[in-house]
Design brief:
The protein is mainly alpha-helical. The chain has helices at residues 7-28, 35-49, 56-70, 77-100.
């Protein structure tokens, strides 16, 4: 079966690649900075352009986790819980992106 390349598949492949980069940054301990906010702006744009590709509840819960980590008023166990939730959301984005690409089906 030949692969089917389209704008959706190319954009989704780029989205998955940037998500893997963001996941590696999160695992290294990057909790501040502006890159996660730019990333989630892109995720919201991606989910708006391609409706049905990502669940909005996951998108906005990841955004809330990122905003909570952005502010440095918390620490300890609460910060670790928020980081784990954000990592779970990023893993969901990777699997949802790979699942939705038609040349993997």
């Amino acid at each position: 079966m030949d692969p089917r390349f389209s704008v959706f598949n190319g954009t989704t492949l780029g989205f998955v690649a940037v998500t893997i980069w963001m996941l590696s940054a999160r695992l290294r301990g990057l909790i501040g900075g502006n890159w996660p906010l730019f990333y989630y702006a892109g995720v919201i744009g991606y989910s708006t352009i391609f409706p049905g590709s990502l669940d909005p509840a996951w998108v906005y819960s990841g955004l809330v986790c990122t905003l909570l980590m952005r502010f440095e008023f918390m620490g300890g166990v609460f910060l670790k819980i928020i980081r784990v939730l954000d990592i779970i959301v990023l893993i969901y984005f990777i699997f949802a992106g790979l699942y939705s690409m038609t040349f993997f089906l």
